[in-house]
Amino acid sequence: MPRIALLAPVFAALMFHAAAHAAPVNKCVINGSVTFQEAPCPATQPRRDPTLAELNAAEKQRRAAAASAPGAGAKVPWPSTAPSPSPGPAAAPAPAPGAAPGAFHCDGRQYCSQMRSCAEAQYFLTHCPGVKMDGDHNGIPCEKQWCGR
């Protein structure tokens, strides 16, 4: 039997052991250059985590601002990462006349192909987090499938 065949299981065991105990790699930006290192990235300023009271106060302010803003009840992204809708004559479609106010609920669906009506798509866009139904960010969901002009 060749020696290589005898050493292959030993080599594989050593590589598995080394990979299992490898330190995670951190991607850091230091002086404008990207580096990869095993040690944590150096902090330029000490980080202070917000307290629960501060987080609750910020959430109350955000909800009060959303309630008093025009179009109260509209979805306010938190944190705001989506671009603001472009101003224009397009208005969001009204819910279907036959849809009861509590007919829909957020259940994890995100895409237009999972909706059954324009009213349902509008409800999900307005009330549910993480939906992907308004590609042009104009406030009208599923324009090609359900809420076309």
From TrEMBL:
Signal peptide: 1-22
Organism for this UniProt entry: Ideonella alba
Xref: Pfam families: Excalibur
UniProt feature, compositional bias: Low complexity: 64-79
Top-rank taxon, per record: Bacteria
Residues covered by the Excalibur calcium-binding domain: 109-143
Region annotation Disordered: where it falls in the sequence: 58-99
Positions with biased composition (Pro residues): 80-98
Protein name (record): Excalibur calcium-binding domain-containing protein
Record InterPro entries: Excalibur_Ca-bd_domain
Keyword field: Signal
Keyword Zinc attributed: no
